[in-house]
Design brief:
By secondary structure, the chain is mostly helical. It folds into 2 domains: about 90 residues, Cytochrome c-like domain (Cytochrome Bc1 Complex, Chain D, domain 2), CATH 1.10.760.10; about 100 residues, Cytochrome Bc1 Complex, Chain D, domain 2. It is built from 9 helices and 4 strands, in the order ααββααααββααα. A two-stranded antiparallel sheet has the order 1-2. A hairpin with a 5-residue loop joins β1 and β2. The longest helix is centred in the first third of the chain and has 38 residues. The relative contact order is 0.12.
């Protein structure tokens, strides 16, 4: 009897040990699985994807001054690479804000009044552009001369293509005979972005020799001519 009891005890201990080992393996497996989920967050998968604030703002439909609900992505493509309207990749926050709230051209004059300066900074970061603060120093303290600005606006200036072109060749005051969009009321920073930076310009034309003072003077001249009424096709502006 004693031998049988000892044998039963050994079997019980063996079973309990096996059960304990199984529980340990299950616990370890659960821990590793949870760790894998944590380290996999933001890896681009559909389940774990974490969008940036700028991307969220860019894709969010919001009420416009035209009474419609639209998102930037609807017209400019989900990645800002263009769609119904031009590409926005590389646009700075000042460029975006000028078009969405200021004097910048926008189809049908649509504006987004509820976006903040910080919102435009976030959207620009998503689009791979710069913050307005990164380039605003170029024009600090400069005072525009409207008469000189008119001369610059109508003068034939050297481009990177080796062709001399005047701004007024395409951006005439009369939209009916203009090859390019109106630039009335545009800021010096906005003009510089299109003439020298990453903003769209027909055929990639750039004006390398225009200085910050030149842009400020042109801005002063354009301000005397009024503001764009958004009543025509804005093309790639």
């Amino acid at each position: 009897m004693r031998k049988v009891a000892m044998e039963s005890k050994r079997k019980l201990v063996h079973r309990l040990s096996a059960l304990g080992m199984a529980l340990m393996l299950i616990t370890a497996g659960s821990f590793l699985a949870g760790l894998g989920c944590m380290t996999g967050m933001g890896d681009g998968s559909d389940d774990d994807y974490q969008e940036t604030e700028g991307e969220r703002l860019y894709a969010t439909a919001r009420l416009t001054t035209g009474g419609e609900t639209r998102s930037c992505a609807e017209c400019h493509g989900p990645e800002g690479t263009g769609g119904v309207d031009p590409e926005l990749r590389g646009s700075t926050s000042s460029h975006l804000q000028s078009h969405a709230q200021g004097a910048g051209t926008h189809p049908d004059g649509v504006k987004y009044p509820d976006l903040t300066h910080e919102d435009f900074e976030a959207i620009a970061e998503f689009l791979g552009g710069a913050h307005s603060d990164d380039e605003g120093d170029d024009f600090e303290g400069l005072i525009g001369d409207a008469d000189r600005g008119q001369t610059l606006f109508t003068a034939s200036l050297a481009t990177t293509d080796g062709v001399d072109l005047a701004c007024s060749n395409c951006h005439r005051q009369d939209p009916a005979c203009a090859a390019g969009p109106s630039v009335l009321g545009q800021s010096a920073a906005h003009l510089q972005e299109h003439a020298q930076g990453t903003a769209p310009h027909p055929e990639g034309i750039r004006y390398p020799d225009i200085t910050p003072q030149d842009f400020v003077d042109i801005e002063a001249f354009l301000a005397t001519m009024g503001e764009d009424d958004h009543g025509h096709d804005h093309g790639d502006e």
